[in-house]
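Appendix B. Raw example, untouched.
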Amino acid sequence: MRGASRMHQSGLLARIVRMGGGVAIALLVPTVIGLAIDSRFATRPWGTLVALLIASLTAMVLVVRMTFDVYQTFGETRPPAVPPPAPSSVKEDENE
């Protein structure tokens, strides 16, 4: 049981690191492109601002998609927090 729990945690940790790297790349690449556009066409700061807006939206979509993927992978394998109540075998009196 300990090995399965450790594998579960290491898989989750790997996904978290992958998500962080993806967000960093999704923010850095468009920002560098925006800075390059600003220096090339002298449109400072508009190229950078548009690139940051696109980068932020891309990063949010990436986080949402990865979160849903993690939930589908790890969320369904956990047992329920509270077991469902057992049906009662004692019938209640209907006259009360």
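End of appendix B.
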